[in-house]
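Reproducibility note. Readers wishing to regenerate the assembly model reported in the main text can use the exact inputs given here. Chain order matters: entities are listed in the order in which they were concatenated for prediction.
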Amino acid sequence: MATLLVDKRDQMFILKEMLDIDALCRFPKYASHTGYPMVLTEAHKFANVELHPATAEGDRQGCTYDPKTRAVTFPDCFKGPYRKLLDGGWLAMCDSPEVGGDGFPLTVGTAVSEVFYAGCFYLYGAAELTHAAAKVIETYGSDEQKRIYMKRLFAGEWQGTMCLTEPQAGSDVGAVQTVARPNADGSYNIVGTKIFITAGEHDLTDNFVHMVLARIEGDPAGTRGLSLFIVPKFTPDAAGNPGARNDVYCTGIEHKMGLHGLVTCTMAFGDSNGCTGYLLGERGKGMPEMFHMMNEQRLLVGVEGLSFSSNAFLHAVDYTQNRFQGGSVYPDRDRNAPVAIINHPDVKRMLLTMKAYVEGGRALAYFTSYCIDQAGVTEGEESGRWHGLVELLTPIVKAYNTDKSWEITALAIQCAGGYGYCSDYPFERLARDCKVTTLFEGTNGIQAIDLMFRKLLGNKLVNFRTLTGKMDRTIAEAGRIESLAGYAATVRRAKEELEATVEGLAALAGSEQGLDLYAKTAPFLDLMGDVTLAWLHLWQLTIAEPKLMEAVGAKGKGEREAILAKNKNAAFYYGKVMAGQFYIGTLLKNSFGKFERLRAEENPVIDMFEKSFVA
Amino acid sequence: MATLLVDKRDQMFILKEMLDIDALCRFPKYASHTGYPMVLTEAHKFANVELHPATAEGDRQGCTYDPKTRAVTFPDCFKGPYRKLLDGGWLAMCDSPEVGGDGFPLTVGTAVSEVFYAGCFYLYGAAELTHAAAKVIETYGSDEQKRIYMKRLFAGEWQGTMCLTEPQAGSDVGAVQTVARPNADGSYNIVGTKIFITAGEHDLTDNFVHMVLARIEGDPAGTRGLSLFIVPKFTPDAAGNPGARNDVYCTGIEHKMGLHGLVTCTMAFGDSNGCTGYLLGERGKGMPEMFHMMNEQRLLVGVEGLSFSSNAFLHAVDYTQNRFQGGSVYPDRDRNAPVAIINHPDVKRMLLTMKAYVEGGRALAYFTSYCIDQAGVTEGEESGRWHGLVELLTPIVKAYNTDKSWEITALAIQCAGGYGYCSDYPFERLARDCKVTTLFEGTNGIQAIDLMFRKLLGNKLVNFRTLTGKMDRTIAEAGRIESLAGYAATVRRAKEELEATVEGLAALAGSEQGLDLYAKTAPFLDLMGDVTLAWLHLWQLTIAEPKLMEAVGAKGKGEREAILAKNKNAAFYYGKVMAGQFYIGTLLKNSFGKFERLRAEENPVIDMFEKSFVA
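Running the prediction on these inputs yields the following structure tokens for the assembly.
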């Protein structure tokens, strides 16, 4: 069977050869989990056999809403796979045994998530939200709340949701108008409308647990007046069994570009003034509590973006291997016999571009998870440094990987020509689906603002310097391998230009041109992504290049390809080295123009007059 | 009413102030057409009132196919507008009075096409195909063929189609297997299957005239064995009225990412061995005859890409003017009151980026049409130079404008946040629809190969030097305007780097690294587009900057904005100048990295081993 979801060999390369997860597993916290390769194998099996077959049909059928019953129906092909996903205990694989989890490192969990998102974005997306709600309750819930909700959520028995957005409160969460009035029994009467609620209502679970941001009557305006509430669909009785129907209903669903297999609901709380909610954590701390989970959620959205790119790339490889069209331009081949189009240089350029961004984006996402794992097993300043890297890299994983998914899925469409536009192939669906990842959990514009002002400047560049320190070590190591010296020099140049750029941004802050910073957020995030990927590719080259040299040495094309055809491992390292060399030697050159762009003054943006866009 | 399709003021700026269409109209061929501004006004009215309202509903309903009757039904809201489009005589506005046309310059026709595509891509797309078929018959048809088919096609009474692609013959047209066997009466018996046939069958016209590429039995393999045939759905009788049903049927339609309102058919010719076709033009000349029309078709596809970008940009301006969210970051405004998000720098950056590419892409498309017009009214070498520019620029208009539409529609989605992903707004539809323009009439990969090998190197850089000569004149002129000198210098630098790059490519051809060229086609086209747009922006600045200075001088922000708020014309020039300055001063800087990239050796692409993409 062709590998069409995620390249497991590449995952293992990153986990084992690059990040040395085996060493991580020597920490007592993870001691029993050296068996992660087997888990990954199982995940691939499950994604290919159970999840993926439901996806195209789920997109075709979509979710339906019945305004009479206010019920949402999922595609009928979802029930079996969803049950099996929960029964497999996959949701809590990185959680502690006390809550029913398996305690795997998050890095391994991230690898599994990529596979499951690629298998079925809709089903795993719904399940992941439940997991996020479980984590919020684990962190902030009372013992009673934990007893009733937590394990059921970790097991996926009930659906969890995140209810932040309102029609007038999107990126500006502080504008939330949903109100909570205290009841005599300590509970709250919730009234308000939330929109864009993923999986707010459906027929796959018996109960729903909504995490709702609302303002207790009289509390201040803005985000600091917001509190977090648990609003169950059926209020659990003392034993935790679903009881009375609460006054929260789905009043409509969105018709969207994609994500047809995962419903997006408008939720009305207290339309009949009978919606009861329960304060979760501290009054007025709703935002920080939500945001405690946000980093991990944003990392996961980045993994979603990656999964679309991976999926599109592997399907494109498969398509171009099997589509014969046009003669070869290589002088050693027959010009007149049609060849598989994977052999045409322009197609190879597209595929190698995809491969470079997929494998770079994968290293980026896994490395960020690895930093979370490291922060959890180290202490003091060391742990702080790992945590700082997580802070810095999270908006990049989220925005860069999802922005790239729009480009990569489009390249895959181009590889398939007209067929790429037709629903018989997955390419067009992947492009439609991936776009939502640039929007939810904070638009990519919001990520870029977060990176510039909180993660970079707000932190006086400390986290940034931790990152460039790591880059320096890789550059030095690569410089010692003769065949990599040129690539090391290019990455050094990029890193130095990045440092100079960041110094320039820091100098802008507080200067007369300070507003320029606001016009530079997104281009800066993009460039941070470019250079970080260059470092990660160089790191991978330092591992793969010596192994490739061992297998093929400096042999010519004919001999080399004879070896690669027989030796799968050598073929893998060859692809890894080509992708890294193409990224650093060719694609990264684009970034040197982007540095120039970032140095430009942004007067036209800052001075632009509203009525002059169309006059 | 907000301007939501195409900015007419900008169209008029390009037509009148930049290209001086009034002077073009002094040539006898166009002498009676100084009234083009009125025609443009009528086109906008028609597009807004009749075409645009049908579009969202057309996308929602889609086209349906009944396998029993093999009939295709268009959305019912299309009938009225389509009739009115034909009755308005719009199709033949640039054709000669002898065929029922109005003889307008093509530049004006291109402006009208942009408006109509933006109004309804589906309906105007169907009509334009009919027009293309009419032109083929005008150029190559016998007197009898012209008498029967031509005027009916120019009037849009019957639907014309282009039938090239077959399952095994996409980009490789020479692989066509449809066969034509001579009948005793001089007609041909056609047998074969064509796919991806736009408007191959529907219920808006009484008859269909298919232009079919087929191989006469015994003719050589490859493109030089192909001939062109007219295959009517109902064979016209001597009076030209639809007669007997011909054996050509739609056997299925594609389910696509977008373009739901314009059907894509699989057409079976001669399934019952009763399909009659009529040779059009010369035996064995099918390809050159098709390609005679291709330049104009490709230009039009570029205009389609532009129309999506324009539509998305103007809807984004409208949305962001009316969406209030978050406080202003400008020091002179209230930080706490929500402002229209058009005032946030990151949103302004997105809008200004869109504006710069829309107005640059528009200038590119109109200028290329203008070259066609000039080639038609000049003679000898001068005409040849204009024609050379058309040759060079056409693949750029097609591929660059359609590639950009994928980026621009995505930016528009980002401007609208989560709403951008929902079908209540046009953004997601525009993104889905625009993707097909990167694929049809030759994928953008094919355009880039055409540009590199035929239009650039195949022509020994003559056309390229004609273009850079024009750039030189604009750079010199801009250099004489003090406030533009810096921008002129940046464009000069870009032009000189482009010249050096092109010399480098020419040197590669025939060298040992010659294969590298095949890996550089698409990045080169992209860069040609970047630099050509820079030139066109500079040209526009030389006109707009003095007019802006006249209106506002060097006044500060407050005084300036007071003038702009009152003076629409000044507000337009201000927007034009800001877009041009942003493009050249900021966006173009990215291109200097792309030059570096193009200089890189492409060994990884050329050497990549098929089995190493996934090992």
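We highlight two features of this model. The mean pLDDT of chain A is 96. Chain A has 19 helices and 14 strands.
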